[in-house]
Amino acid sequence: xxxxxxxxxxxxxxxxxxxxxxxxxxxxxxxxxxxxxxxxxxxxxxxxxxxxxxxxxxxxxxxxxxxxxxxxxxxxxxxxxxxxxxxxxxxxxxxxxxxxxxxxxxxxxxxxxxxxxxxxxxxxxxxxxxxxxxxxxxxxxxxxxxxxxxxxxxxxxxxxxxxxxxxxxxxxxxxxxxxxxxxxxxxxxxxxxxxxxxxxxxxxxxxxxxxxxxxxxxxxxxxxxxxxxxxxxxxxxxxxxxxxxxxxxxxxxxxxxxxx
Length: 260
Hints:
This protein is an alpha/beta fold. It has helices at 4-13, 24-35, 53-63, 81-99, 117-129, 176-185, 197-205, 219-226, 246-259, and strands at residues 18-19, 78-79, 105-109, 133-134, 142-144, 151-157, 160-165, 168-170, 192-196, 210-214, 232-235. The protein is globular.
């Protein structure tokens, strides 16, 4: 088992946390866009309270560990690795609680097929091995996605939902696919959704228990957590080399095992 200190060092070395690749300019642009009501950055969520730019920055400093000083406008930004590890432990508790139910029904989805899929696949496999039914609703459902507006379809790999565009899995912030999946499930929603981006936001907005991964430039999910719509959000760089996530995934799976 990886020690906490070793995981902390790994997160910094691989820039999953610490001095991350996501720039300060990009973070602040997204915080401002969300505060100004751009639905793209809400990731399928609506919010009960008004969130000003300063409010969003303060929350992101508290929840993810970005630089709190609003005068820091450009260059390097950060994610606190201790916040990442603490959120992983909290996520493990929620997953263990779901797996402790009789015949639990879980739903996995990612908008990061070149990054976070490396976390979702082994976690989904672990859940199935511990008695979970992994749901695959709306497979093949298509819509004109954001970006170029080409037709995109829900497709599963290892029971993890992603979007397919002309034969390739694609990055997405869209909430529509998860909204369709939950609509198909109807009155039998999942016991827990493990997701990111709009997949997580739409599930939380629908009142489904949800845990999520989010980068420092995805403030919508952290606002959802603050307002109680998402149970746990793990702050991390969501698109480093897939193999870099292996120690983090090992930590999460081991923590779930210990909690069962």
